[in-house]
Design brief:
The protein is mainly alpha-helical. Helix content is 86%, strand content 0%. It has seven helices and no strands. The longest helix is centred in the middle third of the chain and has 33 residues. The chain is globular, with a radius of gyration of 18 Å. The two termini are 22 Å apart.
């Protein structure tokens, strides 16, 4: 059942958090790159592609679990003086979601440039503008995922399952 898988994953994550965070991130970066390559003139995934994206997963495996903590701390700090944010749970969660998404933007732009190096493309202003537009479009489903994750992470019973998953 799903519950037994979650309990098993939590046990492994509790014993080996760095490894499970890395593996979760590596699946996302390597898998995402492999999917993206299917829409290019060269859909073959090489060892070089895997090496680049698996290396990028190191940064993501550290940052992803921290980002929700950081955005939540910042949102809670801001809500101390912003009454609407403090008194309305939905607005509080939406603000936290927007902040989390904004925090990811520079990290994802750095990753965009890293992938440009991998793909032997020049790092130029035009390339970065394309990256910013692409990330802006890709942000739409992430806003929803971030909102759900933040909402669920506020519930202690689900926090332990979403924390390693979200990494």
């Amino acid at each position: 059942t799903v519950d037994s898988v979650l309990h098993g994953y939590e046990r492994i994550h509790s014993a080996y958090p760095l490894i499970t965070n890395y593996l979760s991130s590596a699946v996302g970066t390597v898998g995402g790159d492999a999917i993206a390559k299917q829409f290019t003139d060269n859909p073959d995934v090489t060892q070089r592609d895997v090496a680049f994206t698996a290396t990028a997963a190191i940064a993501y495996s550290y940052l992803a679990p921290k980002m929700i903590e950081w955005s939540t701390k910042a949102t809670n700090k801001i809500s101390e003086s912003w009454k609407t944010l403090k008194s309305n749970e939905t607005i509080h969660t939406l603000f936290n979601t927007a902040l989390l998404t904004a925090m990811y933007f520079p990290v994802n732009m750095a990753y965009w440039n890293y992938l440009s190096l991998k793909n032997d493309e020049p790092i130029t202003l035009d390339n970065n503008l394309v990256g910013a537009a692409t990330l802006g479009i890709a942000t739409i489903p992430y806003l929803f995922a971030d909102y759900v994750a933040i909402k669920k992470l506020s519930q202690p019973a689900t926090k332990k399952y979403l924390r390693p998953f979200y990494s």
